[in-house]
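FAQ: What does the model actually see?

It sees only this:
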Amino acid sequence: MATQYTAGLSAGQVLTAATMNSIGAAWESYTPTWTASTTNPTIGNGFIEGRYCQIQTLVIVSAYVIPGSTTNYGSGNYRVSLPIDAKGTNAPIGFAGLLDASASYVGYTGFATRVSATTAEFRIGNGSGIWSPSVPIPLAQSDQMRFTLIYEAV
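And it is asked to produce this:
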């Protein structure tokens, strides 16, 4: 679990730059679990990496999935696990970008929504679908699925 700032200030105390510098939570590594609604993908020789920090109930996540030559793309809507359980309903919790390696890394943008307390999925920016092996493009080796999430922890 990420380091959390717990040394509170008393009423009337001044918040200084030195105190602000000590508040910063340490970034923790995490490996998102990449799943799909029908058949789960397997990363093979690709990469999945992430990191997150938590300050009180605020969670900030930055992660990516890059398929390799032996990646199996599964079927159904793509989802990723969250490092800390999320509070709320199926509301947007962040930004997602898909970079197409075969087209000089042309980008497709979308947003992340909370599917459950433990998972998020990605919707195309115009609302026309949910990311899957073929939406918004057929995924291939070296494409990059990147996401940044900010949400309230349970």
